[in-house]
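User: Can you help me understand a structure? I only have the sequence.
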Amino acid sequence: MPFRFTLITLAVTMLVGLAAAAEPPTTGLPQGIEYRTSVEGIHEYALANGLKVLLFPDPTKETITVNITYLVGSRHENYGETGMAHLLEHLVFKGTPKHPNIPDELTAHGCRPNGSTWTDRTNYFETFAASEENIAWALDLESDRMINSFIAQKDLDSEMSVVRNEFEMGENDPEAILEERIVSTAYLWHNYGKSTIGARADIENVPIERLQAFYRYWYQPDNAVLVVSGDFDAAKTLGLIQNTFGKIPKPARALQTTYTQEPTQDGERSVTLRRAGDTRAIGVAYHTAAGSHPDFAAVEVLAFILGDEPSGRLYKALVETKKSASATSHAYQFAEPSILLAGARLRMDQSADDALATMIDVIEGLRAKPPTADEVDRAKNNLLRNWEQTMNQSERAAIRLSEWSAMGDWRLVFLHRDRLRAVTSEDVSRVTAAYLKPSNRTQGVFVPTKEPDRAVIPATPDVAAAVRGYKGGEGLAAGEDFAGTPENIEANLARFTLPSGLKVVLLPKKTRGSTVSVSMQLHFGDETSLKNQAIPGRAAGEMLMLGTKNRTRQQIDDEIAKLQARIGVSGSAMGASATIEGTRENLEPALRLMSEMLREPSFPGNEFELLKQERLAEIEKYKNEPFQVVSTVLDRHLEPWPREDVRYTHTPDEMVAEIQKATVEDAKRFHAEFYGASAGEIAIVGDFDPAAMKSLLSELFGDWKSAKPYVRLPYAYREHGPLDQVVETPDKENAVFRAGIIMPVRDDDPEYPALVLGNFMTGGGFLNSRLATRLRQKEGFSYGARSNFYAGRWDRIAWFNAFAIHAPQNGEKLEAAFREEIEKILKDGFTGDEIADAKSGYLQQRQVSRSSDRELVGALSTREFQERTLAWDAELEKKIGALTGEEILAAMRKHISLEKMAMVRAGDYARAKEAHSEVLAPEDGSVR
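Assistant: Let's start by predicting it. Here is the structure, written out as tokens:
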């Protein structure tokens, strides 16, 4: 079909498909539901039992998100209860009498679910394909587990060790622990000083009766906010909400408010952390106003001015001077008086004392060198861009509303935006003078002072008064009701190839907020020309956003913020990629900027040296981390490429040596020899003019040809031997297990669909796969246990691998349990119910993925590279839907073998063994 005719067809389709979202009703509501207010497309209702309901219709999505937020977090925990809110979050997934296996249900409905706990709230959400059946199920599930969750001793027994493993995972990161220590030192009395994950002793010993009492007290409708967003019928949904949540009686108890207030800090405080590691870290903290306070917008701008890369004052003073490898700053936004933190990572040869002194000078020096108008504008542009991109995606916005509800009222999300827009350099200077005082700093030692200069933190404001009568601004543009089926997507696509060889795929459609997504990938070289090019190719790709012939790194960042877009450009020796998330209004300048970064990088020498320091510090930090260790061992075993091959897996020490000898000239040369659009794809999905886009892409990339030809690198299957290796990583409380096997399979082989679904049941889904059920749900060995399967388009080679974190003392048990589960699968296969639920869940997940423009645009680009259309997806889904248990078992038995599988564990097993031996009773019967 000629391109012009395709455009006419698309235009007609869009006009017919435009859907005006029916405004949720304000009258004629189901009995027991009261309409409260509306702001910018979000509508609030209240049930008689106290439940607050927010409806956020968005017909541009073929998905629905149900998010329920309980206004309880670690702030509300009492003595001996630290971590209880988070532990309870885990137990609520264990089921109710009506919904006994929640992970199975979530997978069967194709959900993207999760739960999270923070200082002031706990939330649970599911995003799923839009249908009346799915939303009815989700509302029934959430209303049922609000009051009928088991919260049973047997579930606590297994989940306690899972949460403890999650705790141990955090204990592996010294920088994260340093931040915890700083915050706990800054807060002497308030519960914000306690980590949400809790204390190990509380996690291990909390009585089930206290958890049950905590659950019954806080998990009630008068302490919850329900958000429904996406493509749904508002009137029907309100009826469903009344029929599910409305039946729950209003509790007789009255909620108590927390009343502990942190006193004004009266002098510098310090903390020292001593643990194993290969990098240093420093940090400071200052008390600030509550997240709902008018000052907080200026505080957030202040944190950006300090911590942004590369414009931030800390970056310029520490990283650019090579006093540290990185620098950051952020402001926590709590319901009650909050905290601003700054931190930096240092290599071992950099002075912590010097870096810390510089950091303090920069932060507290802001009082003498106040922020400029340009710095404030840059910060506001970036913060407002992030706000807008969140609210443009109704599923993201539904979850983000959890934070604002916990701060007092969801309308603060808009009020805070208005406050950000109004921030001036004078406002930032004012909060700088108010909060960034030595006596308000957590670092250093006590110093007697005759005339203390203390920061007085304002009280948490009256949120109800702040939002009373607030109506907000103009809502975002509505979008098109677009079916995300392979057939409908293909019917609306336009494809063509530019003279350079770049393949183009366009999918124009109306979107909420007039958003548009772009995905581009370029392919470089061949097996011979890419020899010894891994490091130069990576360096060239990482330099693309650090300066062009026309712009500095800072000017690039400023332009991206000005365009209110997200633009990412990166590359390796085998290719480059670029993405854009923006709006119709700014798509052309965003594409021009992306083209400029790809085609005209300037490779500034100072940025190259800073990049080297950052990468070296990163490698040194992670080289002894268990995950890095097992990944290096396993990858080198399964794919032993020669050293000069671009696919070779370097050890951390080899990578350090390569980076140290790399030069900016290597990066320049690689770009000149390999970059171009002779082999590549670009896909664009969203609100744009297809004819204008064809002309623009021709201008930007039509003449950009690669100097060296591209020939796809082959991946040939070869036998590998088994491996069972244990690596000691001292002082790492969280251990990692990985297993892998390579098999001769391609994605058009008959066994491929069966292996896809078999892997989904083995280690995919949501907590209900065989591995997750055994290692997490039943045994409590691992917080995270998964498996993955991938087969390529061109070569008959596929990868199956599994992953689980664990406490070192459980390493042998976990590996044994993994082997047992794989053996059971290969012996007996899967049940009929498992297969039916897996089919439903997997196919709905693919539908949910296609409804996200950010994911769809990448899929379209990939299919173009594979010389396929989405008809391949439709055929694959048809084959998966028709699979039998016998076919799945036969495929698994044919290609997966424990005898051939490679397994690696890394952790501090020696210390775990020593600790275990210490608690054993000696032969003489005495007590140790």
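Now, to help you interpret it: The first helix runs from residue 3 to 17. Residues 73 and 800 are 39 Å apart (CA to CA). Let me know which part you'd like to focus on.
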